[in-house]
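This part of the workshop introduces the protein records we will be handling. A record pairs a protein's sequence with a compact description of its fold. Comparing a sequence with its tokens is the quickest way to learn the format. To make this concrete, we reproduce a full record directly below:
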Amino acid sequence: MRTERRFGFGLFLLALVSLAAAADESEPAATDESGPNVTYVPGDAGERVPVQTVVPDYPELARRERLEGEVQVCFNVDRRGNTYHARVRKSTNRIFEKPALLAVRASSFAPLPDDVKLSGIKTCRTFRFNLTPVAIEDPD
């Protein structure tokens, strides 16, 4: 069980690194001061491997008002990899809650094989809404 959890977490980290590398290749360096960004804060992803992680949109009103914040959303994942029962656990500003919930609901995970038991444990994701871009370090 512990080895499977480590393997699942390793796959999760590998997926995040590949997403960051793909974003780094397709977009200019993050030192650009042009706009706000949203950062997913990796935490305990459980044993499920994300297939598609959706990043929430920065609300236009929050950008104009120069607001920053953080939202933690907890949810369950069904056998097919779809999220359900998404709820905000913590939030520094309500304006960021709806985009975070929509992003979690649009995300998906790898489906479970028939012989694996579905865990009833909730998964949580934390999103940071920042106005200053975050530099992504090159792994080289």
